[in-house]
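pls design
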């Protein structure tokens, strides 16, 4: 369904909303024309009403597919703010925060599901085995660090010294060869504050050893927050 048509049928509670702004209408028409595309990016100026645009696009996909459509925000606070705005717009909504759905509208294919990037992108995501018809990414350009954080593995030497040292050992020869012996040894001994990054080709070379060290470790069951002690950073 055309998202502008959805807006025109809403019973709007927010007295400050009279009609769509020009930029909002243009964005919705452009998206509707290209809705069959796999990925569509919409750029609006700050304060141009992107939340309403995103929610209308999400509801349009819900009406079309009768399936789960997610609107991802960067924090729980923004989820709750967006929920409040959706209520003012007269749009039905479901939230998923802190492991709980607020209602079953989204699972029934009646409403957009508001949640966080963190809830959507993690190894134990509630949405992993669910059929998702579409995702609206709010402020996608600011979410890079959130996704990077959730797909980065940090191993504290204080908590998991054995696996920390096993992984570090895979890169010892490389750092010795490139003249960083002292820096590497200081980090391993906990006396240096420098950060050393292993290049991608060394990660690929040591992949088997890294994987074995992780598989033989309690990392998978360790759900505590790592301390701020020395950590092993896997990646480039």
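designed seq:
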């Amino acid at each position: 369904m055309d998202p502008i048509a959805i807006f025109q049928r809403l019973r709007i509670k927010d007295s400050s909303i009279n009609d769509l702004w020009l930029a909002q209408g243009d964005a919705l028409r452009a998206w509707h024309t290209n809705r069959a595309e796999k990925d569509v990016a919409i750029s609006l100026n700050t304060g141009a009403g992107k939340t309403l645009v995103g929610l209308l696009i999400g509801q349009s996909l819900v009406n079309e597919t009768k399936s789960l459509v997610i609107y991802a925000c960067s924090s729980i606070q923004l989820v709750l703010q967006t929920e409040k705005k959706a209520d003012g717009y007269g749009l039905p909504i479901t939230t998923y925060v802190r492991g709980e759905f607020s209602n079953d509208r989204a699972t029934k294919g009646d409403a957009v599901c508001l949640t966080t990037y963190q809830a959507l992108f993690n190894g134990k995501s509630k949405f992993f085995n669910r059929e998702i018809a579409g995702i609206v990414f709010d402020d996608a350009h600011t979410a890079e660090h959130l996704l990077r954080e959730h797909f980065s593995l940090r191993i504290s030497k204080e908590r998991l010294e054995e696996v920390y040292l096993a992984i570090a050992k895979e890169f010892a020869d490389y750092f010795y060869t490139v003249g960083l012996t002292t820096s590497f040894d200081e980090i391993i001994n906990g006396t240096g504050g420098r950060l050393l990054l292993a290049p991608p080709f060394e990660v690929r070379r040591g992949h088997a050893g890294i994987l074995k060290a992780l598989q033989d470790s309690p990392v998978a069951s360790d759900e505590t927050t790592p301390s701020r002690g020395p950590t092993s950073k896997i990646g480039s």
